[in-house]
Amino acid sequence: MVGARLKGKPMSNHDPRANLEQLIRKNGDDFSSLSRMLGKNPAYIQQFIKRGTPKKLDEEDRRKLAEFYAVDERLLGAAIPAIGKNSTVHGNGSMVRIKQLALGASAGPGSLADDEAAQDTMAFGANWLKQLGTDPAKLSLISVDGDSMDPTLCDGDDIMVDHSAAERPLRDGIYVLRMDDVLLVKRLALRPSGKLSIRSDNERYPNWDDVEPREVNIIGRVIWTGRRL
User: What is the DSSP letter of 170?
Assistant: First the structure.
């Protein structure tokens, strides 16, 4: 529950119509003025609150109203961020904490990494994650181990891995994968033959150009990296 209160009564994420009506009355506003502010017909807000039409506010209208009243969008019907084994909502929901797994993806010769227990979390803005088009419940953070992906990824970089990519058709990009029980981070591409190209960005390291897909266990796609300076 968000901590916004009106006359001693807490607002609930489950009743956006009642929350909006409280905000309007508290601030001495009226339905028609707010409707015109949103570029809608004068009865838009009244119909939403009193008749339930529309069933929920348009996303852009909800954002404008939340900014106008300086409240969390969830009070006006925004979805609560997804929760899963790799992520958790922190504070008022504006930040999402992504689990950091206690393992490293080798960008060098390769190293065994079997311990996947979460050792920490890192907070990211919920809106920023939404712009990435990701489900926070299917994200995790791991560390790069080695320099075969230099200069794109360096030893010690934190990388955000989208595990949902393993459930979709492969598209070219940088992935975390397992081969022969070794966890690797490499650049993958699907060749016309149906086989995979697995490459290192550092030219000092070898590449594999004709790998059978069944020999590779895709863990997820790398969608963000954080680097220590």
Answer: -
Residue 125: which H helix or E strand, with range? Answer: strand 118-125
Is the pLDDT reported for residue 8 higher than 80? no
pTM above 0.85, yes or no: no
Distance separating alpha carbons of residues 143 and 100, to the nearest angstrom: 9
Closest CA to 108 of 145, 141, 143, 142: 145
The first and second tokens of residue 136, run together, are 């926070």
As a whole number, mean pLDDT of residues 14-35 equals 88
**Cα–Cα distance for residue pair 14/147, rounded to 1 Å:** 49
What would you report as the CA-atom Rg of the chain, rounded to the nearest whole angstrom? 23
Report the chain's terminal Cα–Cα distance, integer Å: 38
CB 165 within 8 A of CB 134: no
Give the C-alpha separation, 213 to 177, whole Å: 11
Residues 6+ away with beta carbon under 8 Å from 193: 210
pLDDT in tens, 152-210: 998 888 899 999 888 888 889 999 998 887 888 999 999 988 899 999 999 999 899 88
Q: Can you tell me whether residue 11 is helix, strand or coil?
A: coil
- In whole angstroms, give the CA distance from residue 5 to residue 202: 56
24 Cβ contact list (under 8 Å, min separation 6): 30, 31, 34, 45
DSSP 107: S
